[in-house]
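Thread title: Can someone regenerate the structure for this chain?

I was given the following input by a collaborator and told the matching structure tokens would be attached. They weren't. Posting the sequence so someone can regenerate them.
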Amino acid sequence: MVETLPALQIGEDERLDLENLATGAFFPVKGFMTREEALSVAHEMRLPTGEVWTIPILLQFREKPRVGPGDTVALLHGGERVALLHVAEAYELDLKALARAVFGTDSETHPGVARLYGKGPYALAGRVEVLKPRPRTPLEKTPEEVRAFFRQRGWRKVVAFQTRNAPHRAHEYLIRLGLELADGVLVHPILGAKKPDDFPTEVIVEAYQALIRDFLPQERVALLGLATPMRYAGPKEAVFHALVRKNFGATHFLVGRDHAGVGDFYDPYAAHRIFDRLPPLGIEIVKVGAVFHCPLCGGIASERTCPEGHREKRTAISMTKVRALLREGKAPPSELVRPELLPILRRGV
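Best answer:
Regenerated them for you:
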């Protein structure tokens, strides 16, 4: 039966997303979005049924698929039929208008916008049925499995930490803050596609494994992964990240300065303010300002813990700076990143 169905080729991003739809990671979204759903999410930050959601989950094509509502289509990846799509709608997108609504820009210099454009203007909506799940790494667990893991450990209060990058000192500060607030911390790096100049996923994971093994209480930190691409949608992606981590069982979510931002596209604190415009999400948002090294304070501090009079002495911490130094063959100072992690990070530049 499956072999006789019309078939459409999908990419790795779409395969990750269809599995997240199937496992409930993207709840309350249950399928690739209709035009009404996509536009409602993009413009109103809500599904037509009223639930908060901020990122369109789309199945796009560069050429118009020859299928329509009521059809069932096999989705191909790597030459295999990996899922079925029960088509609810076939439609065309105004990609520039959608980009402005979701990303706040239609510039192709924005990696999320470029990704949206590259996938094409045609979309299919509908529920998915997974035929062949991807082989999962030990870091990849379903929301149900992660919630069971937390129950097993007796973690009632769990802080989730989202990252697309290898750990520097500010990331470590945030994880330690989470440990002060909760029974455990979920370190949940993005495992899907990222910008070409971001660290490779395997380097990110190895660096966090070393940080947790050697410098954090291992019994209170869980390193798992979220298999979805990075969108770089700034404040709207911060909300998306929070909602997904709620589905994985987190009770609190850390939002730092310029969460999910890229370049100068977003105000550094837009990802804090967006939550003030939304109703309670069922997960507590922990907002943290800029984190830096202050020699007068004697270590890593934040805007809320360091006196204003120390401002001129502060050293900003960014992975962009760390990567630049590594590419020049220089060792980033210990104020930016732990020296013990440098052999791992050097393999990623």
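DSSP finds eleven helices and 14 strands in the chain.
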